[in-house]
Specification:
Radius of gyration: 19 Å
Number of domains: 1
Largest sheet: 3 strands, mixed
Structural class: mainly alpha
Length: about 300
Amino acid sequence: MNSLNGHLHFNTLLCALLALTLTAMGVSTGAAAQSQGSTLPTIGGTGGGLIAGQQEADIGRQVLVSLRRSAPQITDPLVYDYLSAILYRLVPAAPLQNRDLTLALIDDPAINAFAVPGGIVGVNGGLFLFARTEQQFASVLAHELAHLSQRHFARRLEQQQTSTPLTIAGLIAGIVLTAVTQSDIGIAAIAGTQALAIQNMLEYSRANEQEADRVGLDILANAGLDPRGMPEMFEIMTRQNRLQGNRVPEYLSTHPLTQSRVADTQNRAEQYPLERIEDSPEYRLIRARLQVHYAASAAAAMT
């Protein structure tokens, strides 16, 4: 089986397996929460208030375990070390309550990055392919750190309490599926009203996105990076979206990108002092390594 078909088969199989697992656990009816006790509690409901930090940590640990079991990982230590270094260059500039982060480096050529409760930051290898400069690459990480610092997940969860209660099992499945497949395919694998609730949880609102953009710009500037990398990266994503036609890139499926958002970010980035910041040799090296990696995978897929 060639690598491209293998990856598509993996995604299809993963969706099917998780869908069957969730059905067996009774997630769509809430039976999972009742049968699993404290292991898989219901995190919606009528309790009110934001979820506790310990609950976020528990969700993060379970997401990480599921990702490492389900998603192909990049095991190149040089790539991982670079990603850790650039992330922890940004962390001191971010208003995070919890600065103990864990990386998940997904072996997928698509543009995607995500941050989930418990300090889990995931990045597709494909982000290196599309981010031509280190500033553009770092802007995506800064944006994700901003989602964590502003606790957008917890704020959306509080809103969700008034509609369909969620189980952690269902939520984790949704996060993992959107991380390793097209978002609409992942959500479709989860049956019933639970699917709509999870989709609503995973999609950031325009207000969330604008707030994360603005906080992310400050993070970049305070870390000694060029905030102009963010609107540049948005332009790259916009072009990629047009090229893909009706198939929305994974990142944009949960991070809606509008022309007004691009313009707002461009205007705000221009307010920061203009400094010429060169890419580090390390970024150029890692980007080249992944270009070779995915070129080899594409060549193998055609043989």
